[in-house]
Amino acid sequence: MKVEFLPSTVGTVATKQFCISTVVNDTIAIDAGSLGMLWPIERQIQIEQIFLSHSHLDHIASLPLFLDNVYRLRPDCPSVYACEETLQCLREDVFNDRLWPDFVQLSEQESPFLELRTIQPEVPVKLRGLTVTPVPLNHIVPTMGFILQDANSSVAVVSDTGPTQRIWEVLADTKNLRAVILDCSFPNSHRWLADKSGHLCPELFVEEIRRLPDSMPVIAYHLKPCFFAEIEHELKAIRRANLEIGVTGREYVF
After folding, report:
1. Per-residue b/e over 128-140, b at no fewer than 16 CB within 10 Å?
2. Distance from C-alpha of 61 to C-alpha of 36, rounded to nearest angstrom
3. I want to staple 133 with a disulfide (CB 3.0 to 4.6 A). Which of 147, 181, 184, 226 is the partner?
């Protein structure tokens, strides 16, 4: 399984991510914060399925641009998977002819731009060569983490969340788990903001990963750029051999 955190900067690729997108096996995206900026355009055209963790802008910002970029006069189109609350946000707040043309309605009338698909907690979505299982997280809007599984490995993408429970219970029974990718948005000095916004800081992060075996690789991501150096320093102080900070543009193979 190949996993890549997409950059969200123009020019030199930076570790910091302003918007969140992850590409899996070249054809599947987890979130679409910067997906519509991916270059070359052929890489966007390869994406067949998009799984949205939730409705916040840094996770959906470039979805309209992506759909516009890859649109062709043909019967097939990208599928967008999300919980019903996130899909409702897309219908009412994004594709409403004010912020962006109503691609949902146009897709029902003409050659489709997208197909909306509702996901349910812990109901696997089976794709070609990969199964994606959504698990609810603890954020300020309905949010899903995703467990990705192929024939040889499993990887968990645990996006925006505060301290949570169910995802760790499910992962305890997940076979061939190779890595957990976990939110760490704020430094410990802003734990109050992490608590109010449904995120983790290193103090909370370390409590969450204690539920995993010590040997399990953990990749921290979603570090807020304005606090990046402070969060990085605090994460490096955690004594765990298999903990690292995700690097944009790097291809992780599991």
Report:
1. eebebbbbbbbbe
2. 9
3. 147
> Does residue 254 contact residue 21 with C-beta atoms inside 8 Å?
no
Say what the pLDDT of residue 154 is: 98
Query: Strands 218-221 and 125-127: what pairing?
Result: unpaired
| pLDDT value for 13 | 56
Question: Phi first, then psi: what are they for 154, rounded to 5°?
Answer: -130, 145
Tens of pLDDT along the chain (254 residues) come to: 999 999 887 666 566 788 999 999 999 999 999 999 998 999 999 999 999 999 999 999 999 999 999 999 888 999 999 999 999 999 999 999 999 999 999 999 889 999 999 999 999 999 999 999 999 999 999 999 999 999 999 999 999 999 999 999 999 999 999 999 999 999 999 999 999 999 999 999 999 999 999 999 999 999 999 999 999 999 999 989 899 999 998 899 99
Question: Which residues neighbour 225 within 8 Å (Cβ) at sequence distance 6 or greater?
Answer: 16, 17, 18
Q: Which domain holds residue 29?
A: 2-253
Number of domains in the chain: 1
Coil, strand or helix: which one is 69?
helix
Torsion region of 58: left, alpha or beta (phi above 0 gives left; psi -120 to 50 gives alpha): alpha
What are the C-alpha distances in Å from 55 to residues 52, 138, 141, 181? 7, 14, 8, 19
CATH number at residue 112: 3.60.15.10
Distances (CA, A) of 245 to 14, 48, 50: 13, 28, 24
